[in-house]
Amino acid sequence: MSFITRGFSGRSRDRDPRIPPGQTEVGDFPVLSAGPTPHIDTAEWEFSIVPESGEPRTWSWEQLMAEKIEEVTTDIHCVTHWTKLGTTWRGVSLDTLFADVETSQDYVMAHSYGGYTTNVPLDELLNGQAWIAFEFDGEPLDPEHGGPARLIVPHLYFWKSAKWVRSLVMMADDEPGFWEQSGYHIHGDPWKEERYW
Ligand SMILES: Nc1nc2c(c(=O)[nH]1)N[C@H]1C(S)=C(S)[C@@H](COP(=O)(O)O)O[C@H]1N2
Ligand SMILES: [Mo]
């Protein structure tokens, strides 16, 4: 076997350790939406967490902006095989938003303006793993990419990152959302290639 030299970074370029199996890096930011882009004015925008009591904890846009805002740099992985490295966002951590929500249920259904849904276990939304993001790359989030605000759960395939997120509703059991009902994996870990089931 001959060893082909591709420059000193050749080997790591062949398999960048940040890129999960079966994924290819992209430079652009593809848009993937199952329906039309809803346009929501921040004056009318609301976000709620709904625990089993049925009493929602609701934020207006101003109230969200008054929460602790974090800057996040992270890689994102779409099940359609693209990975985008080092994306930067600003948003509010779900740790902050769940801080005074009382729940003993373990699963969450994210609901979006426009009707999209996706399910995520609560423990995968906490401990610095998920945000309600409203800026991408230093600019207000484009409506196409989920503006004014979207969920980001970067350690799972990007279909879990609900654009135009409107509420997180607690569930006792893990129920499938929109794509999960059409054959996408219930969990969606890109490192385990949990694409379909
Ligand atoms: N509301 C909503 N959120 C959504 C989707 C959608 O169709 N509607 N598509 C999902 C899928 S499959 C992906 S890959 C990402 C795409 O986000 P982007 O368009 O910003 O790249 O959003 C996810 N969130
Ligand atoms: Mo996707």
TrEMBL record:
Residues 35-179 form the Oxidoreductase molybdopterin-binding domain. Coiled coil: none annotated. Residues 1-35 are annotated as: Disordered. CDD domains: arch_bact_SO_family_Moco (cd02109). Gene3D superfamilies: Oxidoreductase, molybdopterin-binding domain. This is Sulfite oxidase-like oxidoreductase. It comes from Orlajensenia leifsoniae.
